[in-house]
Amino acid sequence: MNKKGVFYLFIILLFLNLNSSNAQSNLKTKLPLAEVLTIIESRFSIHFTYLDQTIANKSVLLPSETLSRENTLEYLRYETNLDFIIINNTSVVISKRSNPFSDFITQKLEEVVITNYLTKGISKNSDGKININTEYFGILPGLLEPDILQSIQALPGVMSVDERVSNINVRGGTHDQNLILWDGIKMYQSGHFFGLVSAFNPYLTKEVNVSKNGTSVKFGDGVSSVIDMQLSNSLDQNFKAGAGFNLINADGFAKVPLNEQAEIQVSARRSITDFIFTPTYDQYLQRVFQDSDFSNPQQENSEIISNNERFYFYDIATKFLYDITDQDQFRFNFLTINNRLSYDQQANDDSVIPLKNELEQNNFATGFEYLKYWNSKLTTTAKFYYTSYDLKATNFNIANDQRTNQDNKVNDLGLKMNATNHIDDNLKIHGGYQFSEVIISNAENTNNPTTEQFIKEVVRTHSIYGEAEFTSANKNTYARIGLRTNFIEKFSEFFTEPRLSVSHKLNNDFRLEFLAELKSQTTSQIIDLQNDFLGIEKRRWILSNNENIPIIKSVQAAAGIHYNKNKLLVSIEAFIKDVEGITSQSQGFQNQFQFIEDIGKFQVRGIDFLINKQFDYFSTWLSYSYSKNDYIFDNFNDGNPFPNNIDVRHAVTFASTYDFDNLKFALGFNWHSGRPQTLPLELQNQSNSQIDYDTPNSNRISAYFRTDISATYQLKFTNKLDASIGASLWNLFDRENVINTYYAKNSDGDIITVDNLSLGITPNISFRLRF
Asked: What residues does the TonB-dependent receptor plug domain cover (predicted)?
C-alpha cells in the first residue's frame, strides 16, 4: 500500500474510532461540565482555568478514555461552543468565543511527548526540555514540598556533589555555569541556609523548564544548562491562598483578583530557626558550618570559642498582572532573598570582649514587561529588569587581633525585546534583541595590618537572535534551529552561537532526538581562599576581563532514543560537552594547585539511561549516568588530562512513588562513585609548611549512598478548604557519607585529614492549608 493509501486508511480508522467513541458516549448521561473537567484534569494531568459563569449551565457527555488530549479538547470545544486555550503544557484556559486572538494562543508547536515523567507534574517536550508543574507535582523521596532545585536533581544527568542547591552540577558543569531565571530575570543566589534549601517559593512558581542542551537562542549565558522558573502569567479571576510550615520555615502565598483586568500574587517565607531549635535545624547546622570559622575558630585554637549564633532567612515575591485590553498586557514583579548569620567569638578566659562575626547574602530582582498581540499571528514582548546580589562578611581573628571585611556585589541591568510570528499551523518564527550591563565589584579590607583591595569590572553585551520552530503536519517531526550573536563592547568581540533541537517519531513507540548548541558566558564564580566569607559561602562572582579571566565558551551535543509504550519509558541519551576558558580558581582545588592561577578547559563524555514504569497509582524508575570528566590545564600535570574535581563516573537512582486518593508515598536510593582526591606523598619535606602531593586526582573518596523516604496525606474539609500533613526522612539509615576530603599541616608539621560529611538522618514534618 502506498503512503497515500496508508494516510486514507488512517483517516477512516480515526473517523470510525471517533464515531464509535461518540456512539458509546451517547449511551451515557450528560454531566455538568465542571464534573467532566475534574475528570479530564486527572486523566491528562492538566489544569483548567475559567470563570464560574463561563461554564454555568453547561453539560456534556464524558469523552471516551481512548481519545488523546488534543482530541478530547476538540470534542469539548465542539460540544460546549467554548474556547479551550492551551497556555502551556499543563494549563488550559476556558473562555467564551469572543477573544480575537484565541486562534493565535491555541497554536502550539511544542508537543508534550512524555507525561508523568518520573512522577506526576513532570513532563518532557519534543524539544528535549523537561517541564515541572509545581501545582500538580506528585512526590519525590525525601521531599515534602516541590522544592524546585531539589526536585530537578531527580532528573538524569543532574546532581549536586555536596547535596547543596547552590552547587548543582548538570552533566559535569559547575553551578555558575547554570543560567537560573526567575520570571525571565537572572538570579545570582539560588539557596537558603547557604545551599540546603531552594530560595524560590514553589507555591507561587507555576512551572520550571530545564534545558540541558539544545537551548533556545532566546537564552544567553549558562554554558551547562538553563533553569527557567515561571510565575503564572494569566488572570485566574479566583482567589487562591495557602500557608504552611515545616521544621525549617513557615510560608504563605495568595493570588488575589483586584478586578476583571488585574491580579496580584504575593508569597513570603521565613525560617523559624532563630525561634525554635529542631532536629532538622541541628542537622543543617552541622552540615553547613562543619568546615567554617564558626565551627573551627582560628584553625585549631582551642582558647577561642564561638557562641550566641543567630541565623535566619526569608524571601518575599510579588507579581502584578494587568490586562489593559484584550491585546495589551502589563506585568510587574519583584523578589528579595536574604540569608543572615551572626555569632560571637571570645577568648576562653573571658579576657576579651566578645566580637560579633556576621555574614549576609541578599539577591534582589525586579522587572517590567509589556506584551502586545498585534493580530492572530504576531505578538511582541518588551521586558526591562534589574537584579542585584550582595555577599558581605565581617570576620574577627582574635588570636591575631585582626578584623576583615569582605564584600562581593553584582548589579545586572537588562532589556529584552522579542517578536513571535506564526507563519502557519506548522511554522513559528522568533526574533529579538537583548542588552545587559553587568557590574561586579570585590572589596576586602583588614585593620592589622591595614590593607585595602577593590576591584570593579563592567561588561555590556548586545545580542540579536533569530529562530524557527517547525512541526510536521503529522506531528511526527519537530525541529528548532536558531542563531544568536553576542557583541561584547569592552572587548569589541562577536560571538556567534548556533543552536539546534530535532525530534522525530519513528512510530508510535520510538522517538529519536538530537540536540546541539554553542554558548558563552562572561560571569563566573571563584574561590580565592577556602576561609573567605567565614568559610561558609566562599565563592564570589567575577567578570571576564579577557586576560587572566577569559570568556567561558562551550560546545555540546547529545543524541538519544526514547521508547514509550503502555506506560513504560526506556530512554538512553549520549552526550559530549567541551567547556574552555575556565580558571583554576573557579574549580575549588584543595591540593597542589590551590594557590596557582591557570586557564584551562574540561571535557565530558557520558550516557544517561532511564527506565520508568507507571501503573495506575504506582511509578518506579531506575536511572544510571556514566560520565568521564577531565581537565586540561597547560601548566598542571604537564598538560596531561586528569579527572575533574566533580568527576562522578557512575550515578544510580532507584525510586518508587505511590499516589492514590489522598495519600502520596515515596522511597528512593541514591548511589554514586566518590569524587576524585589527591593524596599527600608518604615522604614529606619537613623544611616547609606546604604539603607535597601525589598525582592530581588520582584517587577517590568512598562511594556515596543515601536512602530517603517521604509521605503526605491530604485532608479535604470543604470545596474550598483542604490541608495536607507530611513527614520525611533524609538519609534514612544515617549513613556517614564523605563528600570531600582535604589535607592540612598542623603546627607540629603533621598532616591531618579533614573529611566533610553529608547530612545525617534528617527528619522533617509539614502542615499546609489551602483555601
From this structure: 148-222
